[in-house]
Amino acid sequence: MSIYSLRDLPQATRQAVRLRIVNGYTYEWAELETGVTRKRIALAVDKLERAHEQIKTVYGL
Q1: By the 8 A CB rule, do 19 and 1 touch?
Q2: Which of 7, 16, 21, 45 is the most exposed, fewest CB within 10 Å of its CB?
Q3: What are the entry keywords (predicted)?
Q4: Is the residue at 5 inside a domain?
């Protein structure tokens, strides 16, 4: 997540994404824990997954 600035991915959204990806929380539970909407969490996860795929493509992984 450090490839995005705090303006693009605020701290609360980062925490929600960590809860979703690392800890296995559902979008609903991550929303309740952080106050970030499910839609915003899903958009951030999609954004990170797209960046991950691009990085893998560039480095041939």
Answers
A1: no
A2: 7
A3: Transcription, Transcription regulation
A4: no
Looking at the domain assignment, is residue 48 inside a domain?
yes
Expressed as residue numbers, the domain containing 45 is: 11-58
Cβ neighbours around 36 below 10 Å, total = 22
Q: Is residue 2 part of a domain?
A: no
Is 3 domain-assigned? no
Task: Assign 33 a pLDDT band (cuts: 50, 70, 90).
Answer: very high
Query: Measuring CA to CA, how many Å separate 52 from each of 31, 33, 57?
Result: 23, 25, 9
